[in-house]
UniProtKB/TrEMBL annotation:
Subcellular locations according to the entry: Cell envelope
Domain of life: Bacteria
Required cofactor(s): [4Fe-4S] cluster
PANTHER family on file: FORMATE DEHYDROGENASE-O MAJOR SUBUNIT, TUNGSTEN-CONTAINING FORMYLMETHANOFURAN DEHYDROGENASE 2 SUBUNIT B
Domain 4Fe-4S Mo/W bis-MGD-type stretches: 69-125
Assigned keywords, A-Z: 4Fe-4S, Iron, Iron-sulfur, Metal-binding, Oxidoreductase, Signal
Gene3D superfamilies linked to this entry: 2.40.40.20, 3.40.50.740, ADC-like domains (2.20.25.90), Dimethylsulfoxide Reductase, domain 2 (3.40.228.10)
Principal location: other
Membership in a protein family: Belongs to the prokaryotic molybdopterin-containing oxidoreductase family.
Protein's UniProt name: Molybdopterin-dependent oxidoreductase
Amino acid sequence: MTSKGRKKTSRRSFLQGVAISTAAVTGVELLKKDVADAADATSEGQCKEISSQSTEFDLTEKSAALQPDKIVNSACQFCNSLCRLKVHVKDGRIVDVLGEPDDPVQAGGFCIKGPMMTELVYNRFRLKYPMKRVAGEKGSTDSQFEQISWDEALSIIAGKFLALRDLGEARAIANKTSGRLPRGTGSLVGRYFNLLGSPNDTDVGPVCNDAGGNALAWTFGLGNFTNGYGIDGATKKEDLGSAKFLLFLGTNQAETHPVTFTYLLRSRAKTKAKLIVIDPRLTPTGAQADEWIAPKPHTDLALVLAMLYHIVTHNLYDAAFVHSWVLGFDELKQHLKSNNYTPEWAAQITDVPVSKIKFLAETYAQTKPAAIFCNAGISHQLNAFDTYRCLAFLAAITGNIGISGGGCNFMHNTWPGGLNLPPIEGKIPKKDIALPVGPDYFAEAIISGQPYRLKALITQGNPLLACSNTAKVQQAYRHLEFYVYTGLFMEESAYYADIILPVTSGFEMETVYMRRDDRAIRWQQQVVPPIGESKPDWHIWIELAHATAKLDKRNPPQYWQDNFPSSWKDYRHLWTTFVANTPGMAGMTQQRLSERSEPLRWPCPTVAHPGVSTLYLDHPSWYQAAESLDVKNKGKRFLTPSGKVEIYTSQLQKQLTKAGHSALPIFYTHPEVTGRNPTIEYLAELVKNPVNPHALTHNVKLGKLSTGEVHKQYPLMGTTGRSSVVHFHSVTHWTYTGKQKNGVRLVQIHPKTAQTAGIENGDEIIVESPRGSIKGTALLWQGIREDTIFVPNWFGSQQKMAQDLGTPYYEAANVLIDQKYYDNLSGQQAFKCFACRIKKA
């Protein structure tokens, strides 16, 4: 972190001298060895500690040239820590970026990515005006585009959409959003698609963390991160900072959410809370832990089931809480026993010692309050919904839900069901059922036409890097009739587009953009004017509606214009509309948000309400907020039909069995996990998705044993994830800092595994899976399982900043991933395990 934007922390490496096989090692042990060996760190992959620059004197103080004309309160958009950035502007140019010292969570700091927001503004590769394809094969870098006006671009899009609708094919039009969107843009997209009559307006959730939100909603009533960072405004007490046990599963927050993670570490220094990190590889998060536990990839569900078994059978659960607030405990107990989900069973599946599983269960159950944190490491498994449900059970039976310092803090599940707009004026067409949830199914619908063909698509992200089996997505986009790409740069997906629309970066608009994981948001002011002719995303959809009004021969212009008033282009007006129409947000006015140094949490029903830190807290502030969401919630603590935590009910069972699941999950995993394990079989039949009932999904059978045949040729398990704290998805690869500091794809391999393959540290290597191959550079790393390699994702073949810094161009890591395997309930793709092999290039 950078304290007040100035102090730079040194970078330490994890040293190569600790023997790690498969079970567990403490981060403390590694750090002790780090200190002992730093003086003569000479073996491969090691480096000496680098001293920080002196911060004793600020030699820029009172520099006339650097004194800002104004300081603008904006926000970083590179992760869900939601740091305020105090942007210094001189003569209309950004000259400095500092942190917010008056936010107790941020504490004046931000990570390396904060100043990189400026590098999106002043970037020679920015898209600056609309373009249309005039020549070249789709996907080819020889594609030729010419500049056109916004009016022409939007007219072409509206004309194509209306032509499909008038042919009775509105369902053949789709949209895919991404996390880069200003808040509320998705509501405008949904409104446009309702007026058009298409069901296929999808959000970023299946790429991100929908499974966590789905599981929380089905168990507790709301699909949101349950607890808050900092002081609870209602109780005036620390919330997550008061935790005595921090259980991290599949989340590397030191690199993905560094500022909120640092807050937890500061709090832990006071509370002496135990931190356990579960991850197949040692990360900077694991280095801070009391203990790092390394299970096989994609086997977390077995670990959690065994923890539940041990807690239930040894009477370590909170009997009083279970009696008062939990439905289905007896059924859960019988389920665990009848399936023999013992620690001994789980040890065989996960490769974690029996003693370690029992210790983990006992420590979690007996140390209160205990908080669970999860992210993509769980979400990107094909059993994600069921794993998250079991984690919710874990919190419930130990009484760690609805209390400060506890909860199920599943990252990125932060917003209400939607930011609502007024009811649509006029009659809207009936919509068909949506394609299966998950962006990767679009490729199948384009290529095969099943269950119907997708013909037109508009995206706000870069699906060629985000979707699994990149080669299949490329094939699909080449055959797509009409594709609109919106973005900051000519990313990989843009070369397949018919129309390209330039958007603004965060500093170029006034809005609410990102949100902190604990449902907290802050207002951000516009810092500089838009670059070129770029527009904020919500402007594009309002103007597209007005362009559609001019061409629609079925409806009068008012059908579109009245439902998309031009006044909404002023985000303050749009936000006021959202607040007035979204239950539980009446207290989140623009004025209140602007005046605060720290963000404000949802739900917040009045301007006098402090906002909710702990969901389901037995406190008047929670009951007031719950009732504001729905009058039917009056007096309810949990917002399920019963008002209690629902582990098992006959209704849950009835709904989930329709898609091959159960209210009480059984263990299954990816067929490319080594060994023979219960896995999943996708049936040809498409059924209504019980978790996302607007869409279809594959019916499945669970429990069939995998054959293990794939590992005869591909003996390793690969997993993907963020390359380092420098990067946030693909966009940071378009910055000088991102490419300078981490522009080489470093594939982490255990030294013993590398030795077997004849690979040395720094060698160029090829990683192959049954789907394809990619190149990278070997990084020998003691802190990873011997049977696992880690391939950083979000590298792409068109990231032009590489030419300035001399770093390689790479194909997407998702070339290696099998598109077929996904969570059929949430739509989450299985990025966290694929069979692979490595060789020297």
